Amino acid sequence: MTINRLLQRFGPALDETMRAVVARAADERGFRTMIEYALGWVETDGTPYRQATGKRIRPLIVLLCAEASGGDWRTALPAAAAVELLHNFSLIHDDIQDASPTRHGRPTVWKVWGTANAINAGDAMFSLAYCALARLSDDGLPEARILKAWHLFNTTNLELTRGQHLDMAFESTQSVDKDAYLSMITGKSAALIAASAQLGALVATGDVTLSEKFHDFGLNVGIAFQIRDDILGIWGEPDVTGKSAAIDILARKKSLPVLIGLERSATLTQTYRKSAFTSDDVEGVLRELEAVDARSATEAMEAAYFGRAIAALQTLDLARPSGTELSELAHLLLGRSA
Amino acid sequence: MTINRLLQRFGPALDETMRAVVARAADERGFRTMIEYALGWVETDGTPYRQATGKRIRPLIVLLCAEASGGDWRTALPAAAAVELLHNFSLIHDDIQDASPTRHGRPTVWKVWGTANAINAGDAMFSLAYCALARLSDDGLPEARILKAWHLFNTTNLELTRGQHLDMAFESTQSVDKDAYLSMITGKSAALIAASAQLGALVATGDVTLSEKFHDFGLNVGIAFQIRDDILGIWGEPDVTGKSAAIDILARKKSLPVLIGLERSATLTQTYRKSAFTSDDVEGVLRELEAVDARSATEAMEAAYFGRAIAALQTLDLARPSGTELSELAHLLLGRSA
Fold it and tell me: In chain A, which end has fewer C-beta atoms inside a 10 angstrom radius, N or C?
């Protein structure tokens, strides 16, 4: 199984749902263009853009979990569109906060239209995520179930902002411990993947207890996923990731391998007192991380969270073949190179 | 009736509801402090702040409309808290977008904590607004009614971002016509007041048709309210408004009196081609606005929208005394001096 096969199966219906939602944003003086640009649908002038952007991991998890829990994946399309729009909202604001000039090889929204417009485009995308979720009402789903999905979405969004806050706070903090770091990535990254898995099962079945097991799966996958991102930010192949080599070291980012290194090496702690790194510093940090086995320690943590995710799946009696596909998708995310 | 009397009646329960919602935002490394600071509850260091900030117009409208429609205003507390939190979300982001250094005499959130944190604090406030609205589920309200309130909230939020987009787009547009301007203030300002009135009636009674009449009232009050803001931005007394005299002229803001002036005066059109204004220019603009009766024309439009609002109220058979209070509140907003 490849992600492409899942995209072939779910992509067209997902795309149709998202486009129907975004069409609600009136195209006054380029308003909708910014939103559609951020989603990778158009160029800055509104003409179609056809290269793939983003992997759509989260909505695929929603739809697979809906099916694997024994329901009809189509029921969960509004939730799938909602998590993808929410993810894109967070990217628009993240790129402003990190002053990132490009994403998926294109200028970021703030870079094209300025910070003020990008803040507003993100806010619009946030509203559209809720408009997408509200389409659960169109299919005659039980109202109590829709309300539960909505409540879950609300708490997830609050959790995202908590994680984002911690991530930014850590930039100006000399010492960050691993627990605080895990709490941060749980909010910033894993919470939405956990909610994706839970929403899929909840919307498709209405079974809260069952949906919580999916949450458990998603949370652990999400943490493992973020740890893999950290590994790629240091040791990823630029040709594959599309990012510069050791980019997180140059940015002095306190990602998990660095935190492990700082625990183990006084030399590294000394180096990280500097306010900026030269390329010699970057080389030195890479050598020191190697010397203290920071990479293998990080990969061991990734594998541990991944193991918990698979264990959570195994407690579930999943419908075939989507149960197998879900497990395969998780395996693809582990050890990925981009 | 004064707004203070309404605040005495509704304020404590509103405050309690908002505080219960905000308490859900974990106070990790100052995260909640930013939110509570923006709400005027604490100083930047988290110690209590006791001066009044903001007039709480929108939640008062929610609660008065709930009661005037024949329901129990307490039922609408979650909706009242939600619109107030949403309003505060929009202020945090507005202040970044306008680069405003102060609000209610205090430094703005971005000024204290920087743009990146302020974007995130706004996003958190947005999520908290939804968390507040979701508390409608706690009181055993019919689920279908809660879903309708949620859908209304979603479309309102999208409308807010459309209005904000137009407002920013107009800054770089040489000619803005009055219809485009009214469309902008409908989104940016009136939509939330309209939703406040509608939510109050909808939540308290579940009567959609009735709630739409309240929407009509709120929309017209909201437009009149914004037109009054435009008048104060030019002719407000600095001692009363807390803003500099003719601040909107100096900022070359294309507010309604200016648009009317531009329609009527070639001299003014010439002046507005300049990219920055001196104090002589400001004096000249004020004289020209006077010469073409722009103020009275603007006040006539304010009065017209106000008249429609009152007419909408009169089609309703409102419960006493809150129906009277609602009409009195609208009268207070018309012709106000701050």
Answer: C
Q: Is A159 within 8 Å of B31 (Cβ atoms)?
A: no
CB A127 within 8 A of CB A82: no
Structure tokens that stand for B218 in this block: 């709120």
- Which residues of chain B make contact with A160, given a CB cutoff of 8 A? 123, 127
pLDDT of residue B82: 98
In a domain, residue A40? The reply is yes
B127 in contact with chain A, both atoms CB, cutoff 8 A: yes
Neighbours of A2 (CB within 10 A): 10
- Cβ separation A124–B165 shorter than 8 A: yes
Q: Domain of A284: which CATH number?
A: 1.10.600.10
Q: Is B162 in Cβ contact with A26 (below 8 Å)?
A: yes
For B280-331, write each residue's pLDDT tens digit.
Answer: 999 999 999 999 999 999 999 999 999 999 999 999 988 778 888 898 888 8
Instruction: Tell me whether B130 touches chain A (CB under 8 Å).
Output: yes
Q: Residue B304 domain-assigned?
A: yes
Map tokens 């991380």 to a residue.
A289
User: Per-residue pLDDT tens for B71-112?
Assistant: 999 999 999 999 999 999 999 999 999 999 999 889 999 999
- What is the distance in angstroms between the CA of the first residue and the CA of the last residue of chain B? 17
Question: Given the structure tokens 């002719």, which residue do they identify?
Answer: B235
Which domain range does residue B115 map to?
3-47+54-333
Is residue B338 a part of any domain in this protein?
no
Q: Which residues of chain B have pLDDT under 70?
A: 1, 53, 335
Residue A338 in any domain: the answer is no
**Backbone angles phi and psi of A334, in degrees to 5:** -75, 135
